[in-house]
Amino acid sequence: MKPHPARFPPQLPEFFINFLTNEGDLVVDIFGGSNTTGATAERLNRRWMICEQNEDYLKGSRFRFEAEEPDDPPEATGNPQLFAAPPSK
Ligand SMILES: C[S@@+](CC[C@H](N)C(=O)[O-])C[C@H]1O[C@@H](n2cnc3c(N)ncnc32)[C@H](O)[C@@H]1O
């Protein structure tokens, strides 16, 4: 599985999450991609929700919750229903 082609560096959501939210707040990213935002929010003890239209990107984002180094994508295997259902047609 190919990594998402336009991932954020985690420092970007980290800056804004720390600046704008408190622990326990809900962080929403409506263009979730590989879910850098959700993984960063979780690490900073925030709740999170993302939207992503591409199911492969959702599958690929699972590495962030399994890897020891969450920014290094290994071969991702995943359970997409953990994150979202594909958009209805
Ligand atoms: C620039 S990427 C986000 C990358 C993300 N910040 C990361 O670090 O991986 C934007 C994402 O928005 C998704 N997207 C675009 N339009 C969308 C829509 N209407 N609903 C859900 N996702 C959408 C694209 O599939 C793409 O993965």
What's the arrangement of strands in the largest beta sheet? 1-2
Q: Using only CA atoms, what is the Rg?
A: 13 Å
Ligand catalogue: S-adenosylmethionine
Question: Which of globular, elongated, flat, extended, rod-shaped describes the shape?
Answer: globular
Distance between the termini: 24 Å
The helix-strand sequence is: HEHEH
> What's the total helix number?
3
* Proportion of residues in β-strands: 5-15%
Low-confidence stretches: 74-86
Largest sheet: 2 strands, parallel
Helical content class? 25-40%
Mean pLDDT: 82
Structural class: alpha+beta
| Number of strand elements | 2
Question: What does it look like?
Answer:
By secondary structure, the chain is an alpha+beta fold. It has a domain at 12-69. Helix content is 27%, strand content 9%. The chain is built from three helices and two strands. It has helices spanning 11-20, 36-43, 55-60, and strands spanning 26-29, 47-50. Strands 1-2 form a two-stranded parallel sheet. The radius of gyration is 13 Å and the shape is globular. The two termini are 24 Å apart. Bound molecules: S-adenosylmethionine (SAM).
